[in-house]
Amino acid sequence: MLTRIDHIGIACFDLDKTVEFYRATYGFEVYHSEINEEQGVREAMLRINGTSDGGASYLQLLEPTREDSAVGKWLAKNGEGVHHIAFGTEDVDGEAADIREKGVRVLYDEPRKGSMGSRITFLHPKDCHGVLTELVTSGTEH
Amino acid sequence: MLTRIDHIGIACFDLDKTVEFYRATYGFEVYHSEINEEQGVREAMLRINGTSDGGASYLQLLEPTREDSAVGKWLAKNGEGVHHIAFGTEDVDGEAADIREKGVRVLYDEPRKGSMGSRITFLHPKDCHGVLTELVTSGTEH
């Protein structure tokens, strides 16, 4: 079961400037930041609210660390904007298997490492009405 | 203060098919549907989770009712995908005024009618790092 909007992933050219925009305009602060070498991104998580499943919803601001990363290629094509949306679940492995069974392409054979020690996978946007969709099981890191 | 991710607005060509995709794939059900003549959209709200400010987060699926509506033009240019994101606040008028003061273009002089009796306004995506951003104060309709 998917029990929350975990985050909205937003691609940007300059993470520091974008973080500053969200702070100055709305008062949102950085809750966590990290570099994910595998995904080729520097990221900042802004925590917006708690959720009824005991988790939280974030904005995830993403700057590519290399042009040939998925986010780097996407930015070159689309410019800045919403890159993906993510739903939280207690069981990313089970959900991914169920959804694959329904004929939706799951991009990873096994979930990979996401923000704050989470485990994540992605669904093909062409199978999801144009929306790159992530499934997340939270980790315990902050 | 913006206290939650209120919804993610997703533009689609066929609302019924897209609703069915979200139901069959994830088990998300329609919480509310309506036609907003002013915005030129038919929409379905899928409630995903409750939020720590006493509200909720939704997916808002949008099908244009006419080609010359904002969503119709956006779809013709971009195809299906995430159209906007929306933050919830108790005071859309005050937030819009504060944000306008900071130099971000607010698209309406006064908030207009949104889903379920809410009052909404939009911020110019070029002033928000490519993200069309909505501010919402919830109504009491369902």
TrEMBL record, chains A, B:
InterPro entries: Glyas_Bleomycin-R_OHBP_Dase, MeMalonyl-CoA_epimerase, MMCE/EMCE_epimerase, VOC_core
VOC domain segment(s): 4-138
PANTHER family in alphabetical order: METHYLMALONYL-COA EPIMERASE, METHYLMALONYL-COA EPIMERASE, MITOCHONDRIAL
SUPFAM superfamilies associated with the record: Glyoxalase/Bleomycin resistance protein/Dihydroxybiphenyl dioxygenase
Signal peptide: none
Taxon lineage: Bacteria, Bacillati, Actinomycetota, Actinomycetes, Kitasatosporales
Gene3D superfamilies xref list: 2,3-Dihydroxybiphenyl 1,2-Dioxygenase, domain 1
Sections of the chain in a coiled coil: none
Pfam family, one: Glyoxalase_4
GO molecular function, one term: metal ion binding
Keyword Nucleotidyltransferase: no
Family to which this protein belongs: Belongs to the methylmalonyl-CoA epimerase family.
Keywords assigned: Metal-binding
GO terms classed as biological process: L-methylmalonyl-CoA metabolic process
Organism: Streptomyces griseus subsp. griseus (strain JCM 4626 / CBS 651.72 / NBRC 13350 / KCC S-0626 / ISP 5235)
Record's protein name: VOC domain-containing protein
